[in-house]
Amino acid sequence: QVQLAESGGGVVLPGRSLRLSCAVSGITFSSNAMHWVRQAPGKGLEWVAVISDDGSNTYYADSMKGRFTISRDNFKNTLFLQMNSLRPEDTAVYYCARDPNYHRTGSWGWFHPWGQGTLVTVSS
Amino acid sequence: DIQMTQSPSSLSASVGDRVTITCRASQDVRKYVNWYQQKPGKAPELLIYEASNLEIGVPSRFSGSGSGTDFTLTISSLQPEDIATYFCQQYHTLYTFGQGTKLELK
């Protein structure tokens, strides 16, 4: 059974940094592309970033480019999101999710399963 | 950027009703659309991938169709446990979600 568990959320001042983690079990982590998706309180879903199985390819949503960095440690089965220069509008629940299509076909696809999410609140 | 426009934004239906939610892409996304269900306080769950493929374990009352710019999620007979918010998502060019459709019981 695939399990994803995010951690590292909390309250942070504007302009500060935060690093999120996502521990993955139940799959061969190193064979799977992984995503971060966020959801502001009461709002819809917003894709943040994706990383290929070996970490060689990363892509970001425009609003996060240059401030957020996605990375992974395939020895520790862990996905990361380094968030710098945080803004109040970055306040959201951040989810990690696996991309099962990438594992099958080498092409990006969908998000399944998802972790339970970790709340990041950017506020003074 | 590709925009995904869902309609309606909210919907009230009765148990047993046939429910249809639509999603329109701002440009041709071929068949690269997925659908998710999100219940309050929970993470989203994949229902349909690649426009019409039912994810394993998802009840057969859910179905998806469409290609190009117009896509549909259908629940053939609404059950109480289907009350949730539904999102479409394109992956033709990076990833974009629709704004969501909140489904409520009448």
Descriptive notes:
The complex is a heterodimer of chains A (124) and B (106). Chain A is mostly beta strands and 124 residues long. Helix content of chain A is 5%, strand content 47%. Chain A has one helix spanning 100-105, and strands at residues 3-7, 10-12, 18-25, 33-39, 45-51, 58-60, 68-73, 78-83, 92-99, 118-122. In chain A, the strands form 2 sheets. In chain A, strands 2-10-9-4-5-6 form a 6-stranded mixed beta sheet. A 4-stranded antiparallel beta sheet of chain A has the order 1-3-8-7, with no helix packed on it. The radius of gyration of chain A is 14 Å and the shape is globular. In chain B, the strands form 2 sheets. In chain B, strands 2, 4, 5, 6, 9, 10 and 11 form a 7-stranded mixed beta sheet that branches. A 4-stranded antiparallel beta sheet of chain B has the order 1-3-8-7, with no helix packed on it. Chain B is globular and about 35 Å long. Chain B has 106 residues and is an all-beta fold. Chains A and B meet through strand 5 of A and strand 4, strand 5 and strand 10 of B.
What is the overall number of helices of chain B? 0
Q: Spell out the helices and strands of chain A N to C.
A: EEEEEEEEEHE
Q: Report how far apart the termini of chain B are.
A: 36 Å
Can you tell me the overall shape of chain A?
globular
**Total number of beta strands of chain A:** 10
Oligomer: heterodimer
Q: What is the SS-derived class of chain B?
A: mainly beta
**Beta-strand residue fraction of chain B:** over 45%
**Number of discrete helical segments of chain A:** 1
- Envelope shape of chain B: globular
Strand content of chain A: over 45%
User: Roughly how many Å is the radius of gyration of chain B?
Assistant: 13 Å
Helical proportion of chain B, percent range: under 10%
Helix content of chain A: under 10%
Outline the low-pLDDT stretches of chain A.
none
Task: Please describe the biggest sheet of chain A, giving its number of strands, its sense, and whether it closes into a barrel.
Answer: 6 strands, mixed
Mean pLDDT of chain A: 96
N→C terminal distance of chain A: 40 Å
Would you tell me the overall average pLDDT of chain B?
Answer: 97
